[in-house]
Design brief:
The chain is 74% helix and 0% strand. The chain is mainly alpha-helical. α2 (34-60) packs across α3 and α4 packs antiparallel against α5. InterPro entries: Ferritin-like, Ferritin-like_SF, Rr_diiron-bd_dom.
Length: 155
């Protein structure tokens, strides 16, 4: 995948975040149980936060935004590595929804890491590092929720 400009990269990332938010919003509308609806809505809100961050970067200026971003190490507990791909199904259980979301974040992180490896200058590399870190934080949060849930269930 090649981009003509950094603006194209940002637009691509914004589109991906909107697609993810739309997926979770649509799924929440199909759920009968309020807990499932709310969890999916929260996933959508997280994706929209990423989209807003990207839009802010675009309007503020990518140089300044990337330079102001605080990078830190995000551990990878790798739970999603042991999860098969899932397809959303109306009424799926909490555990399966968490696994679905973890896997989606894993794929987003892999995509941004691939794009990072293809970046041709420091600004583009740092931009994709920001995206990687944001996806890694989201993935860690979901994997931690999954671990907590499984511990509650006695697994």
């Amino acid at each position: 995948m090649r981009f003509e400009s950094l603006k194209d990269m940002i637009d691509f990332a914004i589109e991906k975040e909107q697609e993810a938010a739309d997926f979770y919003t649509e799924a929440s509308g199909q759920e009968a149980f309020s807990g499932s609806k709310e969890m999916l809505r929260e996933f959508a809100r997280e994706e929209l936060k990423h989209k807003k961050m990207l839009e802010d970067m675009k309007s503020k200026g990518i140089d300044d935004s990337v330079n102001e971003y605080t990078f830190k190490w995000i551990p990878d507990i790798r739970r999603s590595d042991y999860v098969d791909d899932l397809t959303y199904a109306k009424g799926m259980g909490y555990r399966d929804m968490l696994m679905l979301a973890m896997k989606r974040e894993e794929k987003a992180l892999k995509l941004y890491n691939e794009l990072l490896s293809m970046a041709e200058d420091d600004l583009a590399r740092n931009f994709f590092k920001v995206l990687c870190q944001e996806e890694a934080k989201h993935k860690l949060a979901l994997e931690t929720m999954y671990d907590d849930y499984m511990a509650e269930m006695g697994d």
